[in-house]
Amino acid sequence: SLDFDREGVPEIPPLGRKQEIKPPQIDINTGYNPFSPPGNTPSRTERPPAGWESLYEGLSPQPSLYERTHAGEEPFSGEAESLGTQFYQFKNRYIFTPVKSGLMIIDQKRAHERILYETFLNNLEQSVQVSQKNLFPVTLELEAGDHALLMEMHESLKRLGFEIRNLGHSNILVEGVPEYARHVDLKPFIEHLLESYKSTGRDTEAGPHEKIARSLAAASAIPYGKPLTQEEMQHLIDSLFACQSPNHTPGGKTIVFILPVHEMEKWFR
Description:
Blueprint: H1 65-70, E1 88-90, E2 94-99, E3 102-107, H2 108-126, E4 132-141, H3 144-152, H4 154-159, E5 163-168, E6 171-177, H5 186-200, H6 208-220, H7 230-240, E7 256-260, H8 261-267
Antiparallel strand pairs: 1-2, 2-3, 3-7, 4-6, 5-6
Helix pairs in contact: 2-6, 2-7, 5-6
């Protein structure tokens, strides 16, 4: 037989046939602080010091958006809200939010159109040019009339960040676009831009810059059917009410409508 050296080896008694195996128990002191001086380690059953309630005297819980709304406060107070219930997007077209007098309903596409219009108009008047070079310039062929119209708009579009080169024979080369237009399909975008510009021709009171800004805003505004996050709706509404004329589009269409509380109450009589 093999003779092993068993000196210093602990004796492990064999288990009985019916003996239960129990896992080792680990006792953890959750109140242990390795940085506290010896003798000051609190036990796990230590209670808070007496009079802890006084630490919170004078502090009151912040009211919820629901409570503030029913207290008559307007939601657009400039506070950063992230409650998740401040705005409700209906049919991916309208934004609902409570106000003091009732329910405010905002057309999201028209709101964005107004914001872009004032931004573009300011850029044209200030000669602000912000363009992003296309990695792959895009060649487009237009109808002869549309090509001539686009060349009339060329200088204004250049101020707004569009770098367009005339190739002749109704062809153009788009070499640069503004940041917001980097991912759009340029062919339908420019066609929409031109159709919008044609429709503004009937407005004899609008100047050249206003017509360009209106046309580009209409072509660039977020479409109906686009879902928006709470943050996006907040940003859209904040930007809208920072405009000079937030209630109507450049073409005079309604952007904001308030459904009064007393009108709602009539429905439930």
